[in-house]
Amino acid sequence: MSLPAVLSRRPSLPSPRVLRTEALSGLVVALALIPEAISFSIIAGVDPRVGLFASFTMAVTIAITGGRPAMISAATGAVALVVAPLVREHGLDHLLAAVILGGVLQVLLAALGVAKLMRFLPRSVMVGFVNALAILIFTAQVPYLVDVPWTVYALLAVGLAVMVGLPRLTTAVPAPLVAIVSLTAFAVATGLVVPTVGDQGALPESLPVPGLPSVPFDLATLQIIAPYALAVALVGLIESLMTARLVDEITDTRSSKTRESWGQGVANVVTGFFGGMGGCAMIGQTMINVKVGGARTRISTFLAGVFLLVLVVALGDVVALIPMAALVGVMIMVAVATFDWHSVRPATLRRMPRSETTVMVSTVAVTVLTHNLAYGVGVGVLVAMVLFARRVARLVEVTAVLDPDGTTKIYRISGQLFFASSNDLVMQFDYAGDPPDVVIDLSAAHVWDASTVAARDGISARYAARGTTVTIVGMNDNSRTRHAALAGHLSAGH
Prior knowledge:
- By secondary structure, the protein is α/β, with parallel strands linked by helices.
- It folds into two domains: about 15-345, no CATH class; about 395-485, STAS domain (Transcription Regulator spoIIAA), CATH 3.30.750.
- Helices cover about 65% and strands about 5% of the residues.
- The strands form two sheets. The chain has a four-stranded mixed sheet.
- The radius of gyration is 29 Å and the shape is elongated.
- It is found in: Membrane.
- Keywords: Membrane, Transmembrane, Transmembrane helix.
- It comes from Pseudonocardia bannensis.
- This is SulP family inorganic anion transporter.
């Protein structure tokens, strides 16, 4: 291959404009990550440094290993809720061991093709996931607005006004960054006494150092950490893959979900070795990065982690002065931008099938009540499956035609035959009144499971008891193969 051809295949360097966008967006994300990481550390019952180090290592590692450019991974509330009991009962070192094992499990799940399961997530579950996240992001800000001086509300109002109004004038600088810098400068210059980032917990003064968790490497330790590691792996993958899918839709691009799965695993392994609490994709910070900041590459994710470490270690005294009102305003704007307002409009709800709305509401309700995205998504998928099976089962029809000579009756069955639709199939035939020959025509049906074959055996057995001959016709190849493998080997069901 010629040199020009080789050079043409090299990725082009981003333009200065793109670099500026990525860098500024990463800076805003880093500022927003600080109070979030501290809050999640408190939820997990660990020192704030553990959450901050996790956010740094997760962001930097996933920028390299992840499959979805511009997505932000860091310490999250979902993981914090999962590991909190482990920390209370066994301490930090067991947490780090669980995070490392959870990362290994994520890599294994990626190799097994877990990302392919995303195709089974209905759109209504996705909408519920997004709306629930928006509600959780908003409600997480409420504690910062309770029992605070009135000046906090004034700062919040100004910050929101800046973030709403500035983009109408210029998009050269991210509005959230302008709001944070201006409100901090004003608060410091006027000496306002308001809650600040420094009030949330101590910031680290040194770089994270790699090391092994101080736990016995034996079966007893594995029995303790394994359930928590599995929970970390599953919750992290669900939240990360759904966030990646959301970013795909927002940016109109595709990403590798398999790479994202094992990339999350690698990031958690690295995080555990560096003393972090583990994490996964963060919907709020990702929306800041993608929708507010306009970032589209891995550069913003990498810089978010780097800026975070620089801010809390080298500029900790300055960062500690940022009013919480400024960051709360940023997160409120993220919540508003994340929520799918179209999904709750009266016109949309009137047009949408009730089953779809039920799935969305179930996902939102369970997620908000439990603060666990895995539970919400799991319930949403389960409700969608039940309602889908119920709806499809109603589409099965049985029609009967008697031959003119009166010696043969033909039953034509149409629809999808599976456990929900075939269990009542036995009662659709007139066993006592039918002629000596019965033909069951399945040319407009499809046999999906053993329940249908068992029902067919039950029908034949009832007719055989009366001396009636039953002939099955019209089965497609797939149905015929399944029927041939199972017929006569299942309970007759009578």
